[in-house]
Amino acid sequence: MPLSWNEIKDRALRFSREWQHESSEDAEAKSFWDGFFDVFGVSRRRVANFEKKVKKLDGKDGYIDLLWKGVLLIEHKSRGKNLDRAHTQARDYFHGLTDAELPRYLLVCDFERFRLYDLETGEIPTEFALKDLQKHVRQFGFIAGYQARSFKEEDPVNVLAAERMGKLHDALKAAGYEGHALEVLLVRLLFCLFGDDTGIFPRHAFHELLSQRTGVDGADTGQWLAQLFQVLDTAPGRRQKTLDAQLAEFPYVNGKLFAEPLPLAAFDANMRDLLLQASALDWSRISPAIFGSMFQSVMDKKARRNLGAHYTSEKNILKLIGPLFLDELKAELEKIGNHEGKLKSFHVKLAGLRFLDPACGCGNFLVIAYRELRLLEIEVLQRLYARQGSVLHGVADHVAIDVDQFYGIEIEEFPAQIAQVALWLMDHQMNLRVAEQFGEYFARLPLTKAPTIVNGNALRIDWKDVVKPEMLNYILGNPPFLGHHLQTPEQKADLLAVFGGAKAVGVMDFVSAWYVKAACMMMARPSIRSAFVSTNSITQGEQVGILWRALAQYPGLRIDFAHRTFKWSNEARGKAAVYCVIIGFSNLDVRPKVIYEYARVDGEPHSAAASQINPYLVDAPWVTLDNRSTNLCAMPEMMYGSKPTDDGNFLFTDEEKRAFLVAEPGAVPFVKPFISAHEFLHGERRWVLWLVGADPAALKKLPAVMARVEAVDRFRKASKAASTRNYPYPTLFRQVTQPQSDYIFVPGHTSENRNYIPFGFFGKDDIVGNSAFAIPGATRFHFGVIGSQMHMAWVRYTCGRLKSDFRYSKDIVYNNFPWPDLAPSKQASKQASKQASKSDDPSLEKFRTAIETAAQNVLDARAQFPGATLADLYDPLSMPPALVKAHQALDRAVDAAYIATEKAAGRRSPKLGSDAERVAFLFERYQQLTSLLPVAKTKPMRRKRITPKSATAKDGDTAC
Prior knowledge:
It comes from Rhodanobacter sp. FW102-FHT14D07. Residues 846-933 form the MmeI-like C-terminal domain. Pfam families: MmeI_C (PF20467), MmeI_hel (PF20465), MmeI_Mtase (PF20473), MmeI_N (PF20464), MmeI_TRD (PF20466). The structure is a single chain. The protein is α/β, with parallel strands linked by helices. 40% of the residues lie in helices and 13% in strands. The protein is built from 33 helices and 26 strands. It has a 9-stranded mixed β-sheet with strand order 9-8-7-10-11-13-12-14-15, with helices on both faces. A 6-stranded mixed β-sheet has the order 1-2-3-4-5-6, sandwiched between helices. Helix 30 runs antiparallel to helix 32 (881-904). The protein is elongated and about 105 Å long.
């Protein structure tokens, strides 16, 4: 165990006096460094070697005076020698070291002077005289085991350690040691490897036991491990007096980590070597928060190919825990200042907080949350008791925060075990930080407290059985994202069980169920606050209404803060990334509410205060959009494109069409242009065999046509879907929805990078594919409004996404869009005239005309570039200035129309200077329009409802 700082200072003073007159590099250097390490209570022989042979950059052999692999390199010179040259010589050795051997620290010395470089931080080196060593001992805390490390997520040692453990896992499994026993063994080894380098065990005691006491053939390795595990689970007073001295060095751990008897693992030489390779790494450089998920991934060879891609980066975790609780606690501490009474009350408050991660995995969120809570506690203790460099005696009695404040639920056993161990290891690291600060070492051994990590299905168990609501303060985490098409039958059943059979729940992402379960807990104790990382799909499209209707059974639930869509990624190899949001919610009136916006999904957020955050994560009225089959504002109806379900038999490229018509010239009247989103955007052409209304007698005379019809019929009859097998019209598309008049073409999917979605006009003989929509009878006015930034703002905030790209929706986006209330122009169709608003105002006609003119100018600007595709024209980097200016003029015309209609109706003039202002106005206008509609009767959820008769529901009123 590390010495106290007072003891280290006393030893440093004696060391300085003993060596004050030594000068010869060769004569006493080794004794000098053995004594130097002894100052810090560490046996040099256990950690470092003299005269390490390496190949230098010039190809010659070199000898490092002393190397502690991965930690420290020392270059020693005779008294008075140039330390700059010693530094250059030491750096020249790096070429001959492996990545794992490269040190963090470089120390040069000539007996009289020391110069220490921290190669990780790059800070100016510290130089001091031998006589001043006692004043600088804290800078060598890494030797004693006091190091307060800032972990780098991209540190290759994290990946290297996981890879080595992965190989050991594979070797043991291949030999027949598998399942629960293997998982427990690996978790125990994980604890031992950390313990060897972080002061839980005597320095490198575990590595020495493996290397010195086990045979090279590995045959007795399993037996030695079994003995060690038994020792770690046995209190010193219960150990045999004849216990091997090397085993007796190890502390009593307890915590039930080593209690379960395991089958003896039969190692061979390769397995032993793999374990020794793992133990040779410096595990003090590895973060429990990062390594846990990496360690889990070694269990899955497929996941291991992207090793490092599965953990959640600390930066992203802080995006959630900051606004959920940490920022508020930091602000409270700052306000308290050095007021002793308030500091003590605040300390008691910290020790009383309870956290639940109901999808905890390997514990990343819990570990980081625990670390941040402990850092706050250290700040409190510093203000209460510490002066710089002083010692707080009995420091262990002043540390009140412990791991038993943290709870988790995890469906898989192995990560649940890792989560518990990771919290213990983080606790130990924070104890080292306390010791470094206050000068007195302490370790919580034996382990008497443990986090509560329940191995179970979070959607089936009652969370109240994990932690009582009256004890809980925060629910947090990163529940699994799974779209409905990726869910297993069991997961679909879990989802339905949570939602209680609510309508349309089958389209919901799996993560949504955690919101309902959390809301239930928060109803039982309204002061609980929650936050989840989630797929952005639950804030877009039809899922929004379904989720928040389900949450409506828990009155008062509101969003406190939100990160809008960003790319949730990490720094590791593989760079797994998904498009996420973070939503913090509670029954409290939390102020200020904050929205974090991202100009780029892979960029940094900027925050904005909000008066209210609605389910679309907008500062706007609390509304949700339901699927609407008809247009809210009586505009021309949008229709889906036609779906072939033909195995490609009705479709042709240009070349295929030419060849087909040469063979079957009589089919010319039936071959039409086929327009899908891809063809429209990229200027490509396809053709379709369109047999709607075809005379059967004529078709019989076209054998090539009939051959394709027969192929379609065979394909459909082989379908798994009964509706497709039973469809009785083999000459037709599976779904026929072709407009009977000219129409506006609307691509179903388009890149989020475009400032505008391109739309276009087509004729009734241009067949619309099912990757797009059509608006028959639409005019330039309609083209202008949907082609403006007003409509684009609505799209950005309401439509579904494919990754981050827009997935346009007829029933959510178009039919719910609030149009400007303008009178129809003379050129509008009779149908549009019938559907126009009853509040027609002749004075508003000019705004409609302005929109139509600006829309035509956009079409004219496009026409100036006949060789460019719409994808080229609407790429923000290549968009022609003429088209940019035309769209900007259209934006102004549409904005002016909205402002004019609001004034004409006697409402306040809206601010439309940004997307946020536009969409806030549109939600307000939507709320006004829908309030005038008849209230539709809806079938309530088949689920027991908690009635808010009192602030707290009794346990057992409902299961959460």
